[in-house]
Every structure is written in C-alpha cells, then in structure tokens.
Design a protein that fits this description.
The two termini are 46 Å apart. The chain has an 8-stranded antiparallel β-barrel with strand order 1-5-6-9-10-11-12-15. It contains 1 helix and 15 strands, in the order αβββββββββββββββ. It has a single domain, classed as Porin, CATH 2.40.160. With 232 residues, the protein is mainly beta.
C-alpha cells in the first residue's frame, strides 16, 4: 500500500508541475482579440488604356494617393507550441481613400492627333482582409507575427463626363507586425501590410452617349499602422 501511495503522490506532483509549466508557457495573446489602428496608407493605380465605341484608343496616367486609414480587426490565436501561435483574423478599413481629380485620358482620334479628357478620380472603400497569422512568441507578453490571406476592396471611377461606376477587386495580403502587452490584456502593436489586387476595369456611357472602357494596369496598397487592442 505504501508504494501505491508514493506512486500516486509522484504522479500527482508531476501533473501539477506540468500544469504550472503550461501556465507559465501560455502566451498572453492566446485567445480572442479585438483591435483598432491608424497610420498611413498609400494606394498606387497603374496607367490606363482603353477604347470607345467610335473605335478610338485611350491612354492615361497612373497615380499614387493616400491618407490616414482607420482599421478595425478581430481574431483568435491558438497556442501551437511554447514558441508558436497560430492565428486567424479579419480586419476592415472604415475610411474612403480618394485620388485627386486629375487623372486624364488621351483620346487618339487620328494619327498624331489626340484629345485630352481631364478630371477623373478613383475612390477606394470598404476594404476587407481575411488572413492566417502565424506568430513567434518572444516572451509571454511579446510576439512578432506575419499575415497572409485574401483582400477585397470596392473601387469607384468618376470622370467629368459620367456618373460614378464601381467594381470590386479581389487580391492578396501579406503583412508583418509586432505586439506587446501594456497592462492586463491591453496591448500596443505596429504593423506593415501590402495588398495587390486584380487590375480594375470600368465600362460606362460618356456624355455624348458613347460607350467607353477604361482598363487600369494595376492596383496596389501599402499600409503602415500603429494601434491598440485587447487580448481576452
């Protein structure tokens, strides 16, 4: 009986020790989180080419534009090992980013002769990101992470000759960030993201009732964010 009691005590102590080790190894970020951030966003729209129903070709300039975004995010981290978390997350950019109204199109109406159409603009809004986020645990209250997943943004094209026309562009997201607990679940973070989208295309009726198609060569976005969140 004595050896059985001793064995039970040893097993109990070992289990308790493992529980203590597991508790000590558990990252403060394991579980659900919510966060908000701002910073700087740069959007790059590539050069334009197109045509109209009269058979004339169109070409135009690209543009960079940006501003301060407002990004809300939610997600969950699962503790995979002492040093790694696996996360799933989503974020939403709440503010619209607009280019200045100085995109132009050159319409080639004859060899060596063009007409310039001025004052078009692009707007980006309602950006959603869905991503996988592996994270490396520096210590219980600090981690670095990467993001990789799907991004979607609504785009609108408006010229002086037509009402706004819209399309939704899908693409990919990659990102890198750092998080650190400030106090009792509250944390701060910095993050950089890059989003590459399918090139947008717009077909619309101009003021003279001509059908016009504008194809842009690319659409990319860079973000540098700083924010606060809460790990539950």
């Amino acid at each position: 009986m004595r050896w059985r009691n001793s064995f039970a005590i040893v097993v109990g102590c070992t289990a308790a020790s493992l529980m203590v080790v597991d508790a000590q190894a558990q990252s403060a970020f394991a579980g659900f989180y919510g966060q908000a951030s701002t910073g700087y966003e740069n959007n790059q729209i590539g050069s334009m080419s197109g045509s109209n129903s009269s058979g004339f070709s169109l070409s135009g300039n690209g543009q960079n534009f940006g501003g301060a975004p407002l990004v809300f995010g939610i997600g969950n981290y699962w503790q995979a090992t002492d040093k790694w978390l696996i996360g799933l997350g989503a974020d939403y950019s709440a503010l619209t980013q607009s280019s200045p109204s100085n995109l132009y199109a050159n319409e080639t109406i004859a060899p060596g002769k063009t007409i310039s159409h001025c004052c078009s603009s692009i707007q980006l809004s309602s950006r959603f990101n869905f991503f996988l986020s592996p994270a490396y645990v520096i210590d219980k209250e600090k981690l670095v992470y990467i993001k990789a997943g799907y991004s979607q943004v609504s785009t609108s094209f408006k010229s002086a000759e037509t009402a706004s026309v819209s399309s939704t562009q899908g693409g990919y997201l990659i990102g890198l960030g750092y998080k650190q607990i400030i106090t009792s679940g509250l944390y701060g973070f910095v993050e950089g993201n890059y989003m590459g989208y399918k090139a947008p295309s717009y077909t619309f009726k101009a003021a003279d009732d001509e059908s016009v198609t504008n194809n842009f060569s690319s659409l990319n976005t860079y973000q540098l964010l700083i924010g606060l969140g809460y790990a539950f």
